[in-house]
Amino acid sequence: MERHEIEIFLTLAEELHFGRTAERAGVSQSRVSQTLAKLERRIGVKLFERNSRNVALTAIGEQLRAGIEPAHRRIQEEVAKATAAGRGVTGMLRVGFSGAFTGDLILQVADVFSARHPGTELQIQQVQISDPYGPLRAGDVDLQVTELPIDEPDLTVGPVLVSQTRALLMPSAHSFARHASVSLEDLAEMTLLTVVSENVPAHWVEYHAPRQTPTGRPIPQGQAIVYWEDVLSLVLAGKGVCPVSAAGARYYVRPGLTVVPFRDAPPIEYALVWPSARETARVRAFVQISREFVESRGGSSAVIDTI
């Protein structure tokens, strides 16, 4: 069997659908049918039972797949290892994330990265909001996905992986919790949890936890956040409200908490960032695979809904 025949056969055995097989293999549906017919003539038996509604492997087809699939996978792994070694994509890569849903995204990207670059080892860890760039600069992580804006001359900002509607996490008993949406001006009537740390840039704090509304009204400032895990407890205790992404409705809400979207605030965006002086082939490969993964899931505004 030639390589393209093996790949089409194994893909069809997995998909059991000629159209999806053609799409994955990058060929026409008629080419898939022709390749299968050629294989069946050569072997002398049907490999698939098919009609207008269903496609299924025959017993001989199952036997053939069981025989060649492990060998094909092993060949792919060895080719990937050789390619990665030639490009310098080997060794340890440490990846940071700032929130639960970006962590889930990075874990899925990591699976793709490890399959494509089996000569690498990945370590994934959370980066705390009180020191968003410290682990990067200390060399504890090689790159991370974190909230924009980022205006740091020693850091390179990569592609935006996630773009989410900005929302407000508040106690369910709060008077605004019954509203369909809130305005930035409404913050003047609430206590806003903030971030106070010498390691957090002032422009970042002002973007996510402003001290005044767009018309200049002061926003009451509440307790400073050190860890994201503290936010849930503080909001639940009625100590303040906190801006979150709309994905927070899935990840952060528990009994007694409500997420209400803003109707007039820009989205919260999360991008990859890494030290410019320590950009490596591993970093570039992870960035590229992350970009491809997000694009395959409908883009930065849709990817979180697919994981």
Automatic annotation (TrEMBL):
Family annotation (Pfam families): HTH_1, LysR_substrate
Among InterPro entries, the record links this protein to:
LysR_HTH_N, LysR_subst-bd, WH-like_DNA-bd_sf, WH_DNA-bd_sf
Q: Does the keyword Nuclease apply?
A: no
Give the molecular function GO annotations. Answer: DNA binding; DNA-binding transcription factor activity
Instruction: Tell me the keywords, alphabetical order.
Output: DNA-binding, Transcription, Transcription regulation
Report if keyword Phosphoprotein is assigned. no
Domain (HTH lysR-type): residue spans on this chain: 1-58
- GO cellular component term, pick one: protein-DNA complex
Q: Which family does it belong to?
A: Belongs to the LysR transcriptional regulatory family.
Q: What's the protein called, per UniProt?
A: LysR family transcriptional regulator
